[in-house]
Design brief:
The chain is α/β, with parallel strands linked by helices and 225 residues long. It contains nine helices and seven strands, in the order ααβαβααββααβαβαβ. The longest helix has 16 residues. The protein starts with 14 loop residues before the first helix and ends in a 12-residue tail after the last strand.
Amino acid sequence: MLKRKRKIGDRGNLVTIERNNNQSSEQFRSLRSNINFASINKDVKSLVITSPSPGDGKTLTASNLAVVFSQEGKRVLLVDADLRKPSIHHIFRITNNFGLSNYLIGQKDMESLISTIDFNLDIIPSGIIPPNPPELLGSMQMKEFISTVSDQYDLVVFDTPPVLAVTDSALVASQCDGALLVVRTKKNDVKDVEKAKEQLGFSGANLLGAVLNGKKEPKNNYYYK
């Protein structure tokens, strides 16, 4: 099936494209390198991005991380697995009429859901908001989906709901190779971060580390001096 290349939309949030040479985009490339190092003993082909609470920046982290991996030459699939409050389709300006949820209930085949953003970057949006997200994300269909896309792509990035709000992210993380916890400075309490880490651990998720979001860098803080 021929997939059409889409025009990327909310560029202000995609610093890895709009501001490719600034400090923010460099930090995403550094994060990419750290994940690559974590993949030495075991390939990380499926990666969950979550956070303790809403508004921590998990979706922007997932989106920019998917972009920098695709810029490295890897074939990347970004999946909006937030079946409650999806937002990936807003950032990339694609439709959300059908997506992951439609696939999981047997309504659509996978190929019909893919939007090609760039040569190496594909996206599957969340689709219709179902009444039972945990049942769908913990289903055999979801397990088969993860297995299939992991075989087809070098990396699959899942944007999931906040881990302390619902069980969805833990369900997906338990089936993936790794997970990252996005923490916003001056917003998340230490107890909440520890609780989120504990909850992911209980699910059997492989927590690779945490991403500190929202920390301002001094204007004269250059990578090279």
